[in-house]
Design a protein that fits this description.
Layout lengths: L4 H7 L8 E3 L6 H10 L2 E4 L1 H7 L6 H6 L4 E3 L12 H16 L6 H15 L16 E3 L13 H7 L7 E4 L2 E5 L2 E2 L4 H17 L1
Parallel strand pairs: 1-2, 2-3
Antiparallel strand pairs: 4-5, 5-6, 6-7
Helix pairs in contact: 5-6, 6-7
């Protein structure tokens, strides 16, 4: 085609405010600028990219260019977990690994997983705790050993994760309470999963 992927997307009319692209680990400065100019969003999937050795998205440069950046976990084939909060930590670490200790703060990383992800999806009904928005809420304990002595609870929570969620509310209904699923038996799910895997790989 004789052009870069982002240039090809633009030829197709696929750079716009209602579009987001996943991964984006090999963007040029011109690509980043076009994303910012066109309002195209980016779903950053740091754990998947690290597992596959695919590269690291230039998140600081994207944010500085006013690009909408959120977080994704990608699929189980390239991640093994669907833990969005772990991606907050990974996003922080890879940004600092790429650009130094000032590249991203713990709060900026947390924002990628909340307001940032909502912005990528063009969802103004979620991403923050405000009247009229979706009643989705995750709560983690701060009184465990891993956070003992943490001066900044946000940085402590992000950097010492992953943590098991203490309570999870989705659309106003409890999904996890006191660290356990409300509507399902975790041991039963794990047993079924082991049996399915054993059957798949036995033949």
């Amino acid at each position: 085609m004789g052009c870069r992927p982002v240039e090809y997307l633009e030829q197709l009319g696929w750079l716009d405010g209602d579009v987001w692209c996943a991964h984006c680990v090999h963007l040029s400065d011109a690509d980043i600028a076009r994303f910012g100019e066109t309002g195209t969003g980016v779903a950053h999937c740091p754990s998947s990219n690290l597992r596959l050795g695919a590269g690291v998205a230039p998140v600081r440069a994207l944010l500085d260019a006013s690009v909408r950046v959120g977080l994704g976990v990608d699929g189980s084939a390239s991640n093994e977990r669907g833990d969005l909060f772990l991606e907050v930590k990974q996003a922080l670490l890879v940004a600092r690994g790429r650009g130094g200790p000032e590249a991203l703060t713990a709060r900026e990383a947390l924002r990628l997983g909340t307001r940032g992800s909502a912005a990528v999806l063009k969802r103004d009904d979620l991403g923050s705790l405000e009247p009229g928005k979706s009643a989705d809420l995750a709560v983690w304990r701060l009184d465990g050993l891993e956070l003992a002595g943490a001066d900044d609870p946000v940085a402590g929570l992000v950097l010492s994760g992953p943590h098991r969620v203490e309570r999870l509310v989705v659309a106003g209904e409890d999904i996890v309470r006191e660290g356990r699923l409300v509507r399902a038996d975790e041991a039963e799910i794990a047993q079924e999963h082991r049996a399915a895997c054993a059957e798949k790989f036995s033949g």
